[in-house]
Design a protein that fits this description.
Structural class: mainly beta
Oligomer: single chain
Distance between the termini: 40 Å
Strand content: 25-35%
Mean pLDDT: 86
Length: 533
């Protein structure tokens, strides 16, 4: 962030500081009044990127500073993309990145929504060629990609037809052009690719791309849950395997589309679904749990409820991303609708939770959460719920149940944002859960649609479109609606708003700036006369 240096003419008295500030501000406005100048005038950090699921490696779902979100008018709506959107939109360097179930990756202009580039990475897998599942008509890129800004590269895992059979492949694409920089097979050795679904978001850790794998909806066929990692430069994938014994299978790592969580030490946290072991006399199988792994995918510790085997038999996955709380506690939930509070330093194995909250909501809790301090906003399919955790004594309290939305929430502009299966984007009051804003965006493609916030926009995915609303960071002007042909399906169209250096904008800015300069110089003259006395 650029900062002003003190001007050598300006004195140290209060009147002198006021005069100098007015003069400098007036000069800045007299030169131009575009977005770049708003950045100079603002002391708030720029909120220009959203490069991983739920904003940061810890997945806390809290946007950088946003003064407000305005859903009364769309800034733009993207053209209809060629396939369904299951992942969260990402933002970097003035572009919005989205992947589809047609194995396509799009880079959209953050200013207009027009397509800057798009690439097809392969032939998506026809739903009918899979043993089961609920993604139709084709399965392509399901997990949210991840961007490494230092490399200028976006990574995606594509499910594609190769040699007439399904296969999973990790691609690294140049964010500037879509050119393929890296391509690696990521099907685990011995696995049947048609039985696997790469559902989690991707993340980065220790120079690696990290992701989870599970089965298709219905848990048919034989698969094992995996956490995979591939060096960003390419190479053979390494895996941690759930239900790894010869007589075991399942244990999906899917987390309602959330990405593996990376803590400050570089350790990886995931939750796992139901495994094939239904008997407590059988050795524990890493299913229905939260796992902490090292960056080399070695198991460090785990927690599972004492009911893990019964949960397996009833398909009661742990299906939220682990929530890392201040002070080292961890919160976990899933299809059992029970919320668990854990000691992150000592997960303790089976049945060693610090506290539980039963029946937190009336439906499954799946996906990424948003956390502000010790308050966690959880993605219950029946509507977002807010849970308050405490450490001394350890306890959980249900603050409210909204009955609204249900898609994985984020926090931006003082509201909790969630997308419902009714195709409505809701902005909820964080204290009460009541709707403060709501707007129809179109029915989503899946149960876990999640918005993002960056570059002055809140971005909400529907089935085949991305809708953008103004969400300026403090001290910057809100984006204006783009009368763009891109929204009507003509990529490359430009916004109709006048550019920052257009004559009409410059004239208004100059008039305002001149007035402020005169006022500032007048005050400065008075201050000097007083000092001369």
């Amino acid at each position: 962030m650029r900062r002003y240096r003190s001007h050598p003419v300006i004195g140290s008295g209060r009147l002198g500081k006021t005069a100098g500030l007015l003069a400098c501000t007036g000069l800045a406005w007299a030169v131009a009044c575009g977005p770049a100048d708003a950045e100079v005038l603002s002391s708030a950090p720029a909120a220009s990127s959203w490069t991983v699921y739920h904003e940061d490696p810890a997945g806390d779902g809290v946007a950088p500073p946003v003064s407000t979100v305005d859903t009364t008018t769309r800034v733009w709506t993207s053209p209809a993309l060629d396939g369904q959107i299951y992942g969260e939109p990402l933002v970097s360097a003035g572009r919005v990145y989205v992947a589809t179930e047609d194995d396509a990756v799009y880079a959209l202009s953050a200013a207009t929504g027009a397509v800057a580039w798009s690439v097809h990475l392969g032939t998506p897998v026809p739903a009918g060629s899979l043993p089961c599942g609920d993604i139709r008509p084709t399965v392509g890129i399901t997990g949210t990609p991840v961007i490494d800004q230092s490399r200028g590269e976006i990574f995606v895992v594509a499910d594609e037809m190769a040699g007439g059979k399904p296969a999973h492949r990790l691609f690294g694409l140049a964010t500037a052009s879509g050119q393929t920089e890296m391509s690696e097979d990521v099907d685990p050795p011995g696995a049947v690719p048609a039985d696997l679904l790469q559902r989690t978001g991707l993340t980065l850790d220790a120079g690696q791309v990290v992701f989870g794998m599970g089965g298709n909806d219905g848990d048919c066929a034989t698969y094992r849950g995996r956490v995979g990692a591939v060096a960003e430069t390419g190479g053979t994938a390494t895996f941690f395997t759930v239900d790894a014994a010869p007589d075991e299978n399942q244990g999906a790592v899917w987390m309602g589309g959330a990405a593996p969580v990376v803590d400050g030490s570089g350790d990886i946290w995931v939750s796992t679904g139901n495994g094939s072991v239904y008997s407590y006399t059988h050795a524990y199988d890493d299913s229905d749990s939260v796992l902490e792994l090292s960056s080399s995918l070695k198991l460090l510790q785990f927690f599972a409820p004492s009911t893990w085997a019964t949960n397996n038999s009833r398909d009661l996955d742990m299906s939220t991303a682990p929530v890392l709380l201040p002070g080292g506690q961890v919160l976990l939930a899933g299809k059992s609708r029970i919320v668990y509070l854990l000691d992150g330093a000592h997960l303790g194995g089976i049945g060693h939770q610090e506290a539980t909250l039963g029946s937190a909501c009336s439906d499954d809790i799946d996906g990424g959460a948003a956390v502000v301090g010790m308050t966690v906003y959880l993605p219950c399919l029946a509507g977002i719920v807010a849970v308050q955790a405490s450490s001394s004594p350890p306890a959980l309290h249900l603050l409210w149940s909204s009955g609204l939305g249900g898609g994985p929430p984020i926090v931006a502009g003082g509201l909790v944002w969630t997308i419902g299966q009714d195709g409505v984007l809701y902005g909820l009051d964080p204290a009460t859960g009541k709707a403060r804003q709501q707007v129809a965006i179109g029915v989503p493609a899946n149960h876990f649609p999640t918005p993002s916030v960056a570059d002055g926009l809140l971005l909400a995915p529907s089935a085949e479109h991305v809708v953008a609303f103004a969400a300026p960071s403090p001290g910057t002007a809100a984006a204006t609606p783009a009368a763009s042909a891109g929204a009507a399906g003509h990529p490359g169209a430009q916004a109709s708003a006048a550019p920052a250096n257009s004559p009409q904008r410059f004239t208004a800015a100059s008039a305002f700036g001149a007035g402020v300069v005169i006022m500032g110089l007048g005050l400065l003259l008075i201050w000097r006369m007083r000092r001369a006395r």
